[in-house]
Specification:
Keywords: Membrane, Transmembrane, Transmembrane helix. The chain is α+β, with helices and mostly antiparallel strands. The two termini are 35 Å apart.
Length: 803
Amino acid sequence: MVACFMAAPTLRQHEGAGSNLLIPQGVGGTPENGGKYDPVRAYDRQYAEVARNRKEDRHQTLNSSSDAELDDPESSPLIPRDPEDIEMAAVTPYTSTTSLVPAVPRTHDDVETTALAQDSSLDSGQAPRRTVTTPHSTTTSLASTVRGSSTTEGKDIDGDDLLERSFAPSHLCFLEYDKNAEPIGYRTRKVTDWVREHKGDHSGTDYVFLSYTRAQFNVFTEEGLDEMGVEDPEARKTLLHIAAFDRATLERHGIDAAHQAGKKAFWWDFECIKNPDGSAAATVNNPEVYGICDIARAAHSMVVLVGPSVESKKTRPLRAYSEEALAQWLDEGGRAYSQETMTEWMQDWGSRLWTLPEILLISPEEPVKVFAIGGPRPPEKWAKRNFASRPVWKDAKLVRQLIDHYESSIHLEPLELLSLAMECFFHRVAGKRFEGDKAYALMGLLRRRPMVNTEDSEFTAFARLSLANDSESLLERLICLQPLEVDKPWHYQRDSWDSKLWDIEPKCQIAGISDDETVVLDGAYGATIEWSTMKPVYFFTRPTFRRTLTKWTLRGSPYYLIAAIALVYFSASTISQINQFRADIQADRRAKGQPPVAEADLPSADTLVGLLALFVFLLISALGLSLAAPAMILNLYVGKFWNTQASFVGMEGVPAKLGLVEEYLFAADHGRLKWSAAGSTLSRHKESEDYKGDCIGLPPLVFDNTGYDSEGSHLRAFTIIDTYSMTAMAFRAARPPTAVVVCGQEGGMQRAALCSYDWKRNTFSREQVVRLKTAVLDRMFRMDRFRFSFKRRAVSQEAAKTA
């Protein structure tokens, strides 16, 4: 493809280059912005949804001011009116608060006292559970973690907007024994009640963690099915029957696992996560789910229970639970335990979102017991470090690094930990709770955890998590990556140049989170791309002696020519006048009959003849200089540019001859403009044949406009010319970018996002990422706060008509 260039800029250039030799002019344009790129005039004045500095949050208000006082500045107590008021205002700062974070008890005793005051005590005369019965109702002591779902929230000591980490589970399933010390059932008890009854003895609260996936074990109640929206009576009946059977299976194995481990309690989410009223929770929307990571950390050991999927159980009815009924059901359905079915069950368990943090955070001191339905007894024991070598995870190479980190055999830096966790967590299957669940599951690995907001998107939830922790500017680095395919999600980390996040050094900072996949950036370097015209570009070459002499000779040649013509004319006319005067004298004397005057006595023109010969020589020389002007001009402007006006010029398509572009911009093609060797994904390079070891850029391959972005927009070819570094790069994008935003540095080059501008959202959207030479930063202006989106958001037809 060849770009269509307009002829108007060419005419202007040639007219400016040779309009009049009497008035010296350069072939380039005039410098602008002090030789720097055109700045990007953009500034974001809107509130961010989540500000990096909480003082900038829209919910920050002045305690000493009401809405009326804010509307009327004269009534505000913050405005001093007397000299004494000025002094007091200077030494007495005002206090601020946020309406999102209510006050809560700060000490552990206060929390426990508050929880005990709200708790309804257990009936001490109730008989213990024997086999499979409805769990006894108690009230949870863990404060709500979902913002806005309760009047109290558990908060971290580091800040009011962070969740408090729990030390232990609020409820456990405590075993009940017969006279022979054999377990006959269990009772779900509040841990604080159990400790109080045993006079502060915590030794019996050590527990076994039961891990399973609800894709294999259905534990939903009537309330849970209502939340899931299951309305078909037959489907509800089937699911409830399977749920009763699966709950009995889990309870039986939980009791056996705790007894075999020598512990008095076990934990599983269905029984030990309670609703605020103390009833059994379906855990679909229960906020206590986000504290399971701390429960896994505090557990003595873990038991993994796997079996056939719930979907396979719907095809054939289940009878009441018993070991014999289960074995018969498995045999009849061809789902009996084997190495093949075991592998399938473990892979199903390993593909789920919430099982990954459980195995990562469990203590490595005890092996993990893997129970398989219908499998051998006693169960297999797997060391935590050996899980990656078993057929459990398809991304075992990544998970292994996380396991090694939590076993302290290797140490991952915060950036490495979070980037690896992103790759592992965001590709896992999760039951639909909230959009940000994958980020909330990941936050269990980190110390600082933001409050759960049920309205957060996946990106917003992760961005809040990243900003709350020392993530070493992960999001800023993520902006600088160029995905291999344009339709990849924001968390995709495979870069077109094979760079990792830690290879990139950020040059900007995220000041806040705007909305889905949109952040507020500050401090980036930016420049505007010119698309409307190709005006002459100012340039400067070094004033060598040869250039100086050529310049004065070339610029003086009109004066030399005029002077030579004038001197030749003057000398020739003078000689003619002298000869005519001599002839007139002799003729006059002949007319009077007088003898002629001797030639020696008459005026002589011999000297003027010599001068005329000299002037003719000068005239010929001046004519020669005039004829040699093109060659002299060429000699004057060849060589290296020592300075040029920095600008980005954009064009659609890929020019077949880059020299033609240089001629339009710099009046002549001298081969200074080169293709970038590694500037874009279409760039190519090779070793120079003339200078061994030199890397030279090659023209991009000719290709068709094929491909679409994530919105279905057609990808087109564009070319950007950098007149400062004298390079050209071709790329593909759905829209022509209007700004170059440098966000990071990698491999000795600058990572720049080519952005289009969405005026409806006041947002710059990333179209493509390119690599620029580091020297361009010297000619760029820094940008103030602006909104940056990982991709352009599609606008509905209704919104477009409204706009």
